[in-house]
């Protein structure tokens, strides 16, 4: 069933539940200060057991030759514990096999078996435990002088001690796996949080860049319109030329200011305390229409909403951008035509925005205004994200119609 666990769910489970081993030690081991303390303590424990068993053998009257050989074997097993982190299974098997005859290697065998239970899978630890139990079965047969009670009592104690060491090692292993899993989940959660923050920041930058696209397209189209008028009317009265030049200067200044803002937004590391630029609402729509009229456009505003300021900010901003893009497109493609802007709606019914102008057939050729052709695409995306819809195209009456409906909660 482990193979059926999804990666997302697997990341939330402790390693022990997935039957996966704790990261095993391979190759040379670099001990930490804590590892040195633990290793020294366990080495001294194994040596103390060896010395104690050697002293007990003298009291039991075991031959001095056997006792000396037994003690030498026990000390060698204790020394071998320094390599138990690199080769835990091999060291444990060697010490366990030595324990078939050597009583002084019992401490080293317990330490080595505990290391296997902590750092190796349960199946490996269980197999080594079986070898240890077999050792406990053979030792009384080869060294009967150590038998203080019946054979089966000694064998039972050896089995119990082996089982206790195995259980202790499994508990330590499970705890380490849990700590490792929690630490990994914490790192993953921190990385995911940083990713979410970066995505949110990028989404906000994209949104502001889209806003700036709409604004700059509007400003630059005004600049092009006024510059084209001066180009085609070099004999215009000085007052009209001065007024057009003033509008060009003001529009250029505002375009540069807005371009500076969008560059600041799209910087790699924007200032955290940088204030957001004021966003327009539907209450600013009359000013937008007046600005287009000053540029020479014929715009008729049909406002069927009593209070434009009552429209929610987000809805009003989207409606404003739609009208702004509609006026920009009319300046580009229907120069000199009359543009009708109709705003209707109420709370609970939604807000409808319509920009209509005659299809550009036989209209005077105005100054060419470059464009990317993606304005309508951006408006469609904007309306869709707001929960509304947008339609555009030629009507049966021969007009070009840009219409959008946006939800206006009650």
Automatic annotation (TrEMBL):
Signal peptide (UniProt feature, chain positions): none
- InterPro entries tied to this protein: DUF7134 (IPR055558), HATPase_C_sf (IPR036890), Sensor_HK_TwoCompSys (IPR050482), Sig_transdc_His_kin_sub3_dim/P (IPR011712)
Q: What class of enzyme is it?
A: transferase
Q: Which GO terms describe its cellular component?
A: membrane
Q: Domain DUF7134, which positions?
A: 33-176
Coiled coil regions in record: none
Name of the protein this chain belongs to = histidine kinase
- TM ranges are 36-55, 67-83, 90-116, 122-142, 151-171
Pfam families noted in UniProt: DUF7134, HisKA_3
Signal transduction histidine kinase subgroup 3 dimerisation and phosphoacceptor domain location is: 204-269
Supply the EC number(s): 2.7.13.3
GO MF, any single term: phosphorelay sensor kinase activity
| The reaction(s) this protein catalyses | ATP + protein L-histidine = ADP + protein N-phospho-L-histidine
